Amino acid sequence: MKANEVLRLLQISRPTLHRWREAGILKATKLP
Predict the structure, then answer these.
(1) Which of 8, 23, 27, 31 fits a 20 to 30 Å CA distance from 16?
(2) What pLDDT shows up at residue 1?
(3) Domain boundaries, position 18
(4) Exposed, middle or buried: residue 2 (CB in 10 Å: 0-12, 13-18, 19+)?
(5) Burial 13-32 (b: 16+ CB within 10 A, else e)
(6) Who contacts 7 (Cβ-Cβ below 8 Å, separation ≥6)?
(7) CA angle 6, 17, 32 (to 5 degrees)
(8) How open is the CA angle 13-7-27, to the nearest 5 degrees?
(9) Cα angle vertex 18, ends 30, 16, to 5°?
(10) What total number of domains does the chain contain?
(11) Tens-of-pLDDT digits for all 32 residues of the chain?
(12) Could you give the 3-state DSSP secondary structure of residue 18?
């Protein structure tokens, strides 16, 4: 993959990564 494509994916996935992070934290807190 080209650097430009990677940067585009990173820019697009930033909000989704933040959501996954929040979801991961919620799941972690739910675990006993």
Answers:
(1) 31
(2) 60
(3) 1-32
(4) exposed
(5) eeeeeeeeeeeeeeeeeeee
(6) none
(7) 145
(8) 25
(9) 110
(10) 1
(11) 688 888 787 776 777 777 877 887 777 777 66
(12) helix
Integer Cα distance of 31 and 17 in angstroms: 21
- Structure tokens that stand for 10 in this block: 């990173």
Q: Give the Cα separation of 17 and 32 in Å (integer).
A: 24
**Element at 32 (helix H, strand E):** none
The reported pLDDT for the residue numbered 32 is: 67
How far is it, in rounded angstroms, from Cα 24 to Cα 15? 14
Residue 8's identity, in one-letter code, is R
